[in-house]
Amino acid sequence: MITNSPIRPRELSVRAHEVLVIGGGIAGASVAFHLAKNGKNDVAVLERNTLTSGTTWHAAGLIMQTRGTHALTEIAKYNAELYAALEAETGQATGFKRNGTLGVARTKQRLYETARNASIAKSFGLEAHIISPSDAKELYPALNASIIEGAVYIPGDGQTNPVDTCMALAAGARKNGVKIFENSEVTDLWRTLDGCYQVRTGEGVIEAEVLVLACGLWTRDLAARLGARIPLYAAEHFYVVTDTVDFVKPTLPVLRDTDGHVYLKEDAGKILVGAFEPWGKALPMEKLPKETAFIELAEDWDHFELPMTKAIEIVPALANAGITKFFNGPESFTPDLLFMIGEVPGMKNLFVSAGYNSEGIEYGAGAGRALAEWIVGGAPQMDISFVDVARFHPFQINKKYLHDRTPEVLGLHYKMHWPSHQLQTSRGVRKSVLHDRWAKLGASFGEGMGWERPMWFAGLGESTENVYSYDEPNWFKYTSQECNAARNNAILLDQSSFGKHLIQGRDACRFLQWLCAGNVDVPVGNLVYTHMLNQKGGIETDITVNRLSKTEFLIISSATVHPRDKAWIERHITDEMSVTLTDVTSAYAVLSLQGPRSREILSQVTDANLGNEAFPFATSQEIDIGYARVIANRLTYVGELGWELHIPTEMAQHVFDIVWEAGRPLGLRAAGYHALEHLRSERAYREYQLDLTPVDTLLEAGLAFTIDWNKGGFIGKEALTVQKNNLPLKKRLVSFKLHDPNPVLFHEELIRCDGRIVGYISSGVKSFTIGTSIGMGYVHHLAGVTKELIANSRWQIEIAGKLYEADASLRAFFDPNGDRAKR
């Protein structure tokens, strides 16, 4: 019987285990294997049918080490390392071989993107060679080299047999004490009153302290029985296998033709042609066969026609090859094309490993290791914030939202990964009450955590469509004008999407003092820029705290990490504390008025004294604007004099209208989030998940000034103290400015110090104020990242394989003392 209540009294258990993993595919086998390797000797795995049934059995088995970011490459590169050693360790053959990957580029822009990714490989000591069309043909004789601009060859990549690899992980897990039970379908599960988990199978009830859901497609619905919301949706995934063809040999590299939406791999003398077509086919769970362990769906040649046509273009010999198998199987996808691991918010000791977007074999080893280390260590041991299950907003479980987005997400695998690319589907979910006003002003909207946000503003009557580029996207023209207005007059930005949490209660101050590195026990009306840290001193949140009263604090965080921030705070509220957390994001619209004329503009619509003495920087006041009472925070994220106005939502349009009318004669301009990114980067303001992550400390990030060492204990203080007492730091966030004004920095570009790779750009922009690209990135140097190293070294930034001279500084290149915000 399935209950609607996620919490029930304990039933008498047939057996108990410390950790119970549900799912016997690559995700479940990997986490069990790594739990055992990390010393957990009481682990059990339940598989409803047989190991690898579900989706693992029909995976293509491609192994790629280099991904589009350093963080993902850190996870992916481990797969080749582990799979290469599994047979020797377990005695189970895996079919793993390093036959390499050949990624071809049909366009110059694709080749440029490919070269950028090849640079990332160098950070990890991985071979990645950009080669000519003729060189590519030597490696793959059947290739039609006339239609490509070049290629990347990664000899350490390869392929593996998914079934055998999963079996090897299971064998290794068993060897280290893990119990694996096949044909053990979970018919019910619940959480007990004392926080354990119990599941019912045909053989009785099993209890566990820690439950891991690694059930692929079925994770969402199984988690829902516990009250957990996991945004997953299925899609059909296709490949065909040809007859034996003459040009195939075992050493033939995997061919990836992303412009053609296809990959080709050797398969026992045949060719497997797989696709990530531009637009996939979403698959509701109710359309899956109910009692089938190894699911195969109906052929769809109409849908597969485009990728098959492209496959024949790139390898003409396929035109004469017969097809022995057309396979169509289900895979699960997430809304952002990143898998999810971690502890489910609000559900202690409930972990998830799912949503691999048809790349479970490629990420399974690294993700399983990361999750096992989290479970064993009580916290992540590496930066996995970008794949943390806590990153999602509750609305993203909506089935219509997922159904509409999933076809586009599948296609993103092989589409160009343009900087600032915007998804088209499941849009218009969350809108500011000012949305229509921004639209009338020519806003080009982008999406962040479901919010429609102005990214840039077109000229009167001009198109708001994005034209993407690695050099000069079409919005640069308009964004430069917005940045110029911010530096010389004033801009108005909509920051309503920023997360807002109200912390209240008798123990609110004590709680936040323990959770934050900065001192939040300040007078009412003071604003504190601070951070919440983990036990290693790593940065978990990047927030502003506004003290509203003795027992009330308003916490403001970025929209894209708002759910994760909430989960972090809730995780630390104990029953003994008189503390409540309320999400008040929708209660306030936020207008940010920034620029040297912002005081002049705001003074026309309020009777409040806005002078420096009456209204200092980093303070907050309730003031009247027109007929509205608003919370005015004197803050900036662009490096200028300005106020962030928190307005009751129902009065926001009124406030906007009168501020806009007052400001237009003084040069006020609407600005979008692209301008915000360019302006904050000029001032070297950090952004979470780019410049700040859980593996970076405040000292390394150059934010030591935010720490209050004298206020008493706080999470992470001991680790920071050790680091403080062992200077110089071996890792520091450094600002860079290119000498050449033409190249554009985005992120992930390599940093070289006297020729050696010492880090990569965490965030970069074309600075319209300075006239060249600037960026920030962590520099690693065993002898210490000192002022002397910065001053006396030759600095270069590698972009797509080319080196560009740069200046380096521990301070911002624009207004390093922050004088403009305080004038």
Automatic annotation (TrEMBL):
It comes from the Bacteria. Residues 454-467 form the SRP54-type proteins GTP-binding domain. The keyword Transferase does not apply. The keyword Protein biosynthesis does not apply. It holds the Pfam family GCV_T_C. Keywords: GTP-binding, Nucleotide-binding, Oxidoreductase. Belongs to the GcvT family. This is FAD-dependent oxidoreductase. It comes from Mesorhizobium humile.
